[in-house]
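> call design_seq(struct)
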């Protein structure tokens, strides 16, 4: 079979990214232009600034990716793009750019769901073996998904309030760590001890999660200690927080693995970069003879390579979109 080259665009949040991937699993080149430094001073992503910044950068990033790959748009077999979920103004920039390329160069257009992208980031590691369970943990999502086959996403449960990434970022803000706090809390947790007693989030029989309680507990704790004139040990607090959060994520995920008798577990989304989560899941999977697949660190947070990887099977199945493709900022995967 002839090689398939897909150029993908991802602009759902604060990364302008373009990638070219061959046959769904071989990255030719990926450019990720992060706006983190711009949003940092506001303590989070400012949607208006994000979309303006995508507008300024999208053509530069497309050109850079093509140049790095030594390829032209003419060499592509399809153009893929994230159509949702994400920030409306940010998504529009990517979708309009993709539609323009598809129209001018007469290429098929493939609309990819952002979370499908995160899940298929694992395809850049290894061929997926179905059925499988996927734990999706990002800034906007916390879900356990059962996949019987390619592109079949059955949500078993999800967060009832904050996503796990959101709770990391909020707690980071409370202890004075800059956005995005997840990676720093993760680092701090390895420098501290579990000394703070925090509530265990939604430890029930469901596959649902709730992180608002532990977030409020941390906010109250920091506030009370401040009022008493006590210093918070940010390393110990990070470790105490991470222990509780990772424990519940792993417990419910492994319960799903057992219940659905799968032999493969994927982790997807920005929080899959979390070292303690990766280590704990690995231990549990080894015990139960389950294969754990986690994306390489560069494919954990938002990037266009994962969008190209997800688009590959859609290409093979001729699942193309019309040029009037619209963004869907709140689209669900199932
Ligand atoms: O998937 P992603 O890049 O964007 C969304 O689609 O939401 O995820 C971003 C989230 C942020 O909340 C960030 O703090 C979190 O992933 N994150 C981490 C780590 N690296 C990124 N959280 C915990 N530990 C990490 N190492
Ligand atoms: Zn994401």
């Amino acid at each position: 079979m002839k090689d398939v080259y897909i150029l993908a665009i991802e602009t759902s949040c604060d990364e302008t990214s373009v990638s070219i991937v061959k046959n769904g699993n071989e990255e030719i080149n990926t450019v990720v232009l992060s706006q983190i430094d711009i949003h940092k001073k506001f303590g989070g992503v400012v949607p208006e600034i994000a979309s303006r910044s995508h507008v300024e950068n999208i053509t530069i990033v497309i050109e850079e990716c093509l140049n790095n790959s030594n390829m032209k748009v003419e060499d592509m077999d399809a153009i893929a793009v994230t159509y949702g979920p994400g920030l409306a103004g940010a998504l529009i920039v990517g979708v309009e750019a993709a539609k323009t390329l598809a129209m001018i160069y007469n290429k098929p257009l493939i609309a990819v769901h952002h979370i499908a992208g995160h899940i298929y980031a694992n395809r850049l590691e290894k061929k997926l073996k179905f059925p499988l369970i996927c734990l999706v943990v990002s800034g906007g999502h916390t879900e356990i998904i059962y996949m019987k086959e390619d592109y079949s996403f059955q949500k078993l449960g999800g967060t009832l309030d904050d996503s796990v990434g959101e709770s990391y970022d909020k707690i980071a803000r409370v202890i004075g760590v800059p956005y995005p706090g997840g990676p720093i809390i993760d680092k701090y947790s390895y420098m501290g001890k579990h000394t703070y007693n925090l509530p265990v989030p939604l430890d029930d029989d469901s596959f649902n999660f709730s992180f608002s309680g532990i977030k409020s507990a941390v906010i109250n704790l920091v506030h009370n200690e401040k009022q008493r004139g006590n210093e918070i040990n940010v390393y110990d607090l990070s470790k105490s927080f991470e222990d509780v959060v990772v424990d519940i994520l792993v417990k419910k995920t492994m319960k799903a693995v057992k219940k659905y008798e799968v032999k493969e577990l994927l982790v997807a989304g920005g929080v899959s970069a979390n070292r303690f989560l990766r280590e704990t899941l690995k231990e549990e999977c080894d015990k139960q003879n389950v294969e754990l697949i986690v994306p390489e660190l560069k494919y954990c947070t938002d990037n266009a390579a994962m969008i190209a990887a997800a688009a590959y099977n859609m290409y093979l199945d001729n699942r193309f979109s019309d040029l009037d493709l619209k963004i869907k900022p709140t689209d669900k995967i199932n």
